[in-house]
Design goal:
about 25% helix, 23 strands, Archaeosine Trna-guanine Transglycosylase, Chain: A, domain 4, S-adenosyl-L-methionine, five-stranded mixed β-sheet, globular, RsmB/NOL1/NOP2-like_CS, binds S-adenosylmethionine, alpha+beta
């Protein structure tokens, strides 16, 4: 194993006599993880239908190992139904250890491609709001797809430098996750390409970015709120020293203990100038001590009173942005459905078939597109975004076409017209490939209209019955790719 010598020296210093154990684990097989999406299915119900043997990740209630050399969960209809997310087991920890409560306003600052944001969204379970941001717009596109696939609707998907978000969201969020860009030392075992990247941009480069992100995020947290900071690297500069930096800048923050696990290791105050003993409550994951790749986590709380923002930031009484340069074509906050304005007939008649209460004031119609906004959203003019709210569908010449995101957000029992196929039915793959289906055996040709196509009771997308056949309305960009 060719590791950069500066990295080797640091790890010897960090690990002492355990260094050889760490090196030996490079020869061990990697761990493949699958996290059950509890927004769609309970752990118990998934275990009843799991096509593969699964072994529990002991510190994550909905996390499991699978045999990645012999199973391909990404090529299974349940993946297309959003029943699980494939994720390295240690990477499941940050979202799991941030205590999300129903109704919380949650920000994931560095969210793409959504490994943690999708779990945060599942925990909100349709309440509150999840703002998932990533500086990289191309990566944020993947994030949006994963959020929609997992059926999460109470979202904002943003693509901004975090500092730009502060005036809109000063002290707004109850919980913030910062899965910071980092030098990736914890991933060397899983992905050797990370070693080359480390040589280009190492801990010094990333620690500056992390300090900036964490102090910006601190301003968007309400007093009493919590931040979970994580990296997948070992370097103290990016871990304990970043937290030490925050605590110095922000005496209104403290470190909390998080739910433990026997394989976790304590943070290392001795790797900082201050030696602040509170840093022992941070968590390190070493791959030779447990079955997961290298990570670092710190759970932080902002004290209830006397937040620095009260002194430092003149929080705007109304959200600014009106009149500032808009980055995206769409205007949010200008809700044509607001004030109980009458909604278009074609939309109301579609929604009448859905067994769910929609608040007309939260309907946002922009051009021909209809969105269902999270409650109490500030105006976001001036922020680059990819999605605000649940994209319900499009108004087209006196008809409403429901979207893929809406299909994924629905539960089978919420919609009247269902075509539920068992996973063994060859029409499942045909549907996912975008083909027209013959469904004469399942529905009467007379009952025309939109149908929600499900696999074993879990929605995959819409189809429209016309004559004897079901026209396929599965989103073309999401289609099943034959290998
Ligand atoms: C470790 S990855 C996040 C992984 C993600 N949380 C997940 O679980 O799928 C770090 C992300 O930070 C983004 N990023 C880099 N610099 C950033 C910045 N200044 N603000 C916000 N995001 C940033 C990168 O584009 C990258 O997607």
């Amino acid at each position: 194993m060719n590791l950069p010598s500066a990295f080797e020296e640091k790890m010897k210093y960090l690990l002492g006599t355990e260094y050889d154990d760490y090196l030996n684990c490079f020869d061990e097989p990697r761990h493949y993880g699958l996290r059950i999406n509890t927004a769609k299915i309970s752990v118990e119900d998934f275990l009843k239908i799991s096509p593969w043997p699964l072994e529990k990740v002991p510190w994550i209630h909905n996390g499991f190992y699978y045999d990645g050399e012999n199973c391909q969960p990404a090529k299974h209809p349940y993946y297309y139904a959003g029943l699980y997310y494939l994720q390295e087991p240690s990477a499941m920890t940050p979202a799991d250890r941030l205590p999300i409560e129903p109704g919380d306003r949650v920000l994931d600052v560095c969210a793409a491609p959504g490994g943690k944001a999708t779990e945060l969204g599942a925990r909100l379970n349709g309440t509150g709001v999840l703002a998932a941001n990533d500086l990289s717009t191309s990566r944020a596109k993947g994030l949006l797809k994963n959020i929609e696939l997992m059926g999460i609707g109470n979202v904002l998907v943003l693509s901004e430098e975090p500092g730009k978000l502060i005036p809109y969201f000063t002290e707004y969020f109850d919980k913030i996750l910062i899965d910071a860009p980092c030098s990736g030392e914890g991933m060397f075992r899983k992905d050797r390409k990370m070693i080359r990247a480390w040589e280009e941009h190492g801990p010094d480069y990333f620690s500056k970015i992390q300090r900036s992100i964490i102090t910006q995020a601190a301003q968007m947290l309400r007093p009493g709120g919590m931040i979970l900071y994580s990296t997948c690297t070992f370097s103290p500069e990016e871990n304990e020293q970043t937290i030490e930096y925050l605590l110095k800048q922000r005496p209104d923050f403290d470190i909390c203990e998080m739910e433990g696990y026997e394989g976790f290791s304590q943070g290392l105050p001795e790797m900082t100038d201050s030696g602040d003993e509170r840093l022992r409550h941070t968590v390190r994951i070493f791959p030779h001590r447990m079955k997961g790749e290298g990570h670092f986590l710190a759970l932080l709380r902002k004290k209830e009173t006397g937040s620095l923002e009260e002194e430092m930031v003149a929080a705007p009484s109304t959200y600014p942005g009106a009149g500032s340069c808009r980055k995206s074509g769409a205007q949010t906050g200008a809700r044509t459905g607001a004030g109980r304005k009458k909604l278009p007939e074609e939309l109301t008649s579609f929604l009448a078939d859905i067994n769910r209460q929609f608040d007309p004031d939260r309907m946002d119609i922009r051009g021909d597109k209809v969105y269902y906004m999270p409650e109490g959203m500030p105006a976001l003019n001036g922020i680059r975004f990819l999605r605000t709210g649940l994209f319900l569908g499009e108004l087209k010449k006196k008809r409403f076409e429901p979207s893929q995101a809406f299909a994924m957000n629905l539960k089978k029992e919420e919609y009247a017209r269902i075509i539920d196929l068992p996973v063994s039915d060859e029409r499942v793959i045909k549907y996912l490939k975008g083909e027209t289906l013959d469904v004469e055996d399942l529905v009467s040709a007379k009952e025309k209209g939109w149908y929600l196509v499900c696999v074993d009771g879990y929605p995959l997308g819409f189809g429209k019955l016309a004559g004897q056949v079901l026209k396929n309305k599965y989103l073309p960009g999401w289609r099943w790719q034959s290998v």
